Amino acid sequence: MESIVDKFANLECRAINLRNKRFELASTIRKLDGETSAYKKKQLDSLKLIADNTAIQSLQLADTIKEDLQRYFKNNLTTLEARSQFNQDLKAKILAKKCIQAVIE
Fold first, then answer.
1. How many CB atoms lie within 10 A of CB 5?
2. Pick the CATH number of 2-96 from 3.40.50, 3.30.1490, 1.20.58, 1.20.120
3. Tens digits of per-residue pLDDT, 41-51?
4. Residues 54, 26 contacting (CB under 8 angstroms)
């Protein structure tokens, strides 16, 4: 079970990093939007292209995670207890990797 938890934790961390990158790009784009210099316009166009590619990567990764989790749950985690344990292990692994900070529940 450890290796599958590691696999999903790594995927989740990649997804979190992509999401953070999208937010940073959007913030930078908002700051540059409305600039009139040719250099700033080229920079803005380049950032928009990167943002679009990042969004596509993020969506593809989200689909992969969803499909893989559904398949794994269906084939390997057939009880509620097993799913709950998996989710706890996954959350702990993601926190240990410092991809996200603990959320107060």
1. 19
2. 1.20.58
3. 889 999 999 99
4. no
